[in-house]
Amino acid sequence: GQNIDQPTEMTATEGAIVQINCTYQTSGFNGLFWYQQHAGEAPTFLSYNVLDGLEEKGRFSSFLSRSKGYSYLLLKELQMKDSASYLCAVKDSNYQLIWGAGTKLIIKP
Amino acid sequence: GAVVSQHPSWVICKSGTSVKIECRSLDFQATTMFWYRQFPKQSLMLMATSNEGSKATYEQGVEKDKFLINHASLTLSTLTVTSAHPEDSSFYICSASRLLAGDTGELFFGEGSRLTVL
């Protein structure tokens, strides 16, 4: 079966750095997405990785290792507004998006 | 660009009634739209893939006669929850991808519609 694993919840301090991991087992791979979802709102796109390596976009970076079936989202200089759920999603060989359950990130002052 | 609008944002209805949710791509044409359902503290669950001009493709376990999907134009898809019951109360979200050169295939989401069935 297809499976995406990410921690259920993480806590970090304002101004710090946090890394949210995602491991996946899917039938094929056509890219990995990270989305941010604030409570009661729809997800918004953060990043996309299809090749191995690190993609940096401001305070957020996303890393991919296809051989390990692993990705992480790195958030720097955390702000209170970063408190949200972070969803990892993989596009499989049929270009279907498989979603992780999301990681709820709690930022404390 | 790439704005998806969903309406209504909130809806409360009585058990047994039907509710229609609209999803519009405002500045691009979406030949395919996706309907998701999300229960509290859970991830997105794909309900169906809506294709313009043809029947929607439903995921396993989703009743096509209960969740009617119509995609009559390249910018509008509708989801009708028929004979709604309290267990249908959920957050319904539509999304679409924009097929332009260089796009990653990311999904653009509507604002979501929170349905409460009394």
Characterise this structure:
The complex is a heterodimer of chains A (109) and B (118). Chain A has 109 residues and is mainly β. Chain A contains no helices and 11 strands. In chain A, a hairpin with a 4-residue loop joins β7 and β8 (70-75). Chain B has 118 residues and is mainly beta. Chain B has strands at 4-7, 10-13, 19-25, 32-38, 45-51, 57-58, 67-73, 76-81, 90-97, 107-109, 113-117. In chain B, a hairpin with a 5-residue loop joins β5 and β6. The chains are: A mainly beta (109), B mainly beta (118). The A-B interface holds A 31, 33, 40-45, 48, 50, 87, 91, 95, 97, 99-102 and B 6, 42-44, 46, 91, 93, 95, 104-112, 114.
Largest sheet of chain B: 7 strands, mixed
Number of helices of chain A: 0
Distance between the termini of chain A: 40 Å
C-alpha-based Rg of chain A, rounded: 13 Å
Question: How far apart lie the N and C ends of chain B?
Answer: 37 Å
Low-confidence stretches of chain A: none
> Which structural class do you get from the secondary structure elements of chain A?
mainly beta
Q: Taking all residues together, what is the mean pLDDT of chain A? A: 94
- Uncertain residue segments of chain B: none
What is the number of strand segments of chain A? 11
Mean pLDDT across the residues of chain B is 90
What gross morphology of chain B would you assign? globular
β-strand percent of chain A reads over 45%
Alpha carbon gyration radius of chain B: 14 Å
What is the string of SSEs of chain B from the N terminus onward? EEEEEEEEEEE
Biggest β-sheet description of chain A: 6 strands, mixed
Order of helices and strands of chain A: EEEEEEEEEEE
Q: Name the overall outline of chain A.
A: globular
Largest interface: A-B, 18 and 18 residues
